[in-house]
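Quick one - inputs below.
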Amino acid sequence: MRRLLVLTAAAVVTAFAGAPARANDSVLKLTQDPNQWALQTGDYANTRYSKLKQITADNVGKLQVSWTFSTGVLRGHEGSPLVVGDVMYVHTPFPNIVYALDLKNEGKIIWKYEPKQDPNVIPVMCCDTVNRGLAYADGKVFLHQADTKVVALDAQNGKVLWSAQNGDPKKGETNTATVIPVKDKLLVGISGGEFGVRCHMTAYDLKTGKQIWRAYSIGPDSDILVDPEKTTELGKPVGKDSSLKTWQGDQWKTGGGCTWGWYSFDPQTNLVYYGSGNPSTWNPKQRPGDNKWSMTVFARDADTGVAKWVYQMTPHDEWDYDGVNEMILVDQKIDGKDRSLLVHFDRNGFGYTLDRKTGDLLVAEKYDPAVNWATKVDMDRNSPTFGRPMVVARYSTEHGGEDVNTTGICPAALGTKDQQPAAFSPDTGLFYVPTNHVCMDYEPFRVSYTPGQPFVGATLSMFPAPNSHGGMGNFIAWDARQGKIVWSNKEQFSVWSGALATAGGVVFYGTLEGYLKAVDAKTGKELYKFKTPSGIIGNVMTYTHQGKQYVAVLSGVGGWAGIGLAAGLNDPNAGLGAVGGYAALSNYTALGGQLTVFAIP
Amino acid sequence: MVSTVNLKRAGVFFFAAFSFQVVGASLPAFAETTPPGDPKAVKDEDGKYFDASGAPTYNIKPDGTVDWFTYSGYRRYHAECHVCHGPDGMGSTYAPALIDSVKVMNFDQFSEVVVGGRQNVGGGNDKVMPSFGLNKNVMCYLDDIYVYLRARSNDALGRVRPAKRDDKTQGTTDAEKACLGE
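Output:
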């Protein structure tokens, strides 16, 4: 097998040993040590890969529950705990409690932080009060609360060292995402695309919480921090007013483009990578134009926020295919050449491979064969539509128009994958991707905007992908060099849990029924499963304590998956006979936030 | 911008007038409720049906043709409500099944909750419904959503998009435009 290099923190540290602080030294140090788990995404590159290999494909079948912890909260539990040294930091959905657990003392609670938040933020959060977790840097634990307050807690005692207000929930601005500490800054996103919020990425001073830069996704050049001459899309300068030109009138002011996904960072390029969400409203007829820079991959300078390059995946969205999913940074060979890659599994059903230095598009292929809204992404460099999806008129809700039900669109608004992050193993060179196998009917209609109120403008109904295995999900292995599925495991429900790849040749993920599953990284063969107390929408992580490897996951069904699938889906085109024909999640699991930690006895 | 004018328009369109303060008026979690009674339509006003108590209701013909408001309610429910209450009024991990709620609460009580919101917080299971009183996308279609849910709650309509429907009347179109302020 070709030797594949991942851009690991370790490599970077070696490269810059003795140089002035790059990235964040404490984060780099922690993320290169597989015994700890200091970022939600495992490392800056978002690989979710661990070098730990005590648990292997041969022995994972002996895995047992080592200890458990109830979070005391019943809402959907996304994200994962962190482990730094002898302490595990566990977060919850709203009210966003943080627990510091003493691993030396059987998980005894060292401190607990519970913010006081106005419960009126709850209904403003689209689709459950989830929170995708904490970050750790320089002895501080960072939490971005539902009400968009960002707090830095002293990791020793949970005391608030600083706080900053990132948005206003009264306008529909909320938060579900984690944050990422980069160098001397903390990068923070925001939600509210269903409320007509104009979203942004903001950098705060890691020490004081003072705002350093803010880059909107949509608006005038001065707001979106682009350089018309130097910021490029697919190699060409974006030009003046690149966002404003693609909106009608003042519509950009309620344009969405939210930043609630995952953030990655490459210390070599000094670029931060993330995606922006859907344009508001969901009625495409009401916002003519490409609606830039919604649905866009951004590569921004970590120090200034200025975009080096952008790439809009779904111009003029007609399906709610947010572009927020994680950007995974890997180094692989394509056509015999070493490439610095960014790999992204978009909601729109295409797996994109780009050159992360230049933003050049290398591969864009469907990672679920059911995807039908576009035939392909135009890969002809000489074509005026290079890089754009070739939309199929029959599945275009813009083409269908207002008050027309466009049927049989795959994927559904959930996307072929939502935020649930994929993992990458440098050992196999493959990506492990939790996916949805769900399609939809979509009927856009006119809506009016009221600040702080939902601004949706479409009727949706979802159903399992037709003419397939009847399940609503798959767990796949993907080769991003070629854009091909290597293996695919069918799942009864959408896989809404973040994957973990390990040097032991085992890949872990959770299911909505509540199973923690371990599969062989090479073949996908199921090696182990255990049913935890509630459905899993959290992400699997691993760490060691006193020399022993543990695997941990949060259970607690909820989120979009819990809302959409609780009562089961129904094929709207199958007539009355099909009622209850598909599995209802409520028959398999119930609410309950719990951490389950596994080990081999 | 909160528009009093538009709210008044909404009030005109929706003959149910709400005199209490809209913003922040949250009902207690378990207010007294009254079942809605017989859903049988006894009056037809320009394609909109009412039961004996004067509450809006559905009218579904033997061949499955639904009245315009049931159809419109299906659409509005799946735009405004389903992101919390789940598809087809069936409930979710996040919010209750409204096809059950409208079995125990009548139209006025239903309207009060939609307009004023509702809070049930604490115990690790915080539930908060916002006030929709200022949201024209909801308020201009309150009857529609109710009628749809009422049909669902009585099994008069299944978990399907209504296949056949009555046309929208000109009066309904005009009233909708007036309510939306268009």
